[in-house]
Automatic annotation (TrEMBL):
InterPro entries according to UniProt: 4Fe4S_Fe-S-bd, 4Fe4S_Fe_S_CS, Fe-S_Ferredoxin
Pfam families listed in its UniProt record: Fer4_21
Domain 4Fe-4S ferredoxin-type: 1-27, 31-53
Keyword line: 4Fe-4S, Iron, Iron-sulfur, Metal-binding
Molecular function terms, GO-annotated: 4 iron, 4 sulfur cluster binding; metal ion binding; oxidoreductase activity
Lineage, top ranks: Archaea, Methanobacteriati, Methanobacteriota, Stenosarchaea group, Methanomicrobia
The protein, known as: Ferredoxin
Length: 53
């Protein structure tokens, strides 16, 4: 998963991640626990999350 420069660090994506695979330190970052399921994508208010095809 890629979190682009639009990220504002709100943490909404992290709160919906069932794996706890997103950490927010200024900006969100996917950890190695990320399985690229895409569940967090619709919760990003600035469309900063991209899941590889």
């Amino acid at each position: 998963m890629k979190i682009n420069d639009n990220c504002v660090g709100c943490g909404q994506c992290a709160s919906f991640c069932k794996k706890g695979a997103i950490e927010v330190r200024g900006r969100a970052r996917a950890t190695d626990a990320c399985v690229e399921c895409g569940l967090c994508v619709p919760y990003c208010p600035v469309k900063a999350i991209e899941v590889p095809a």
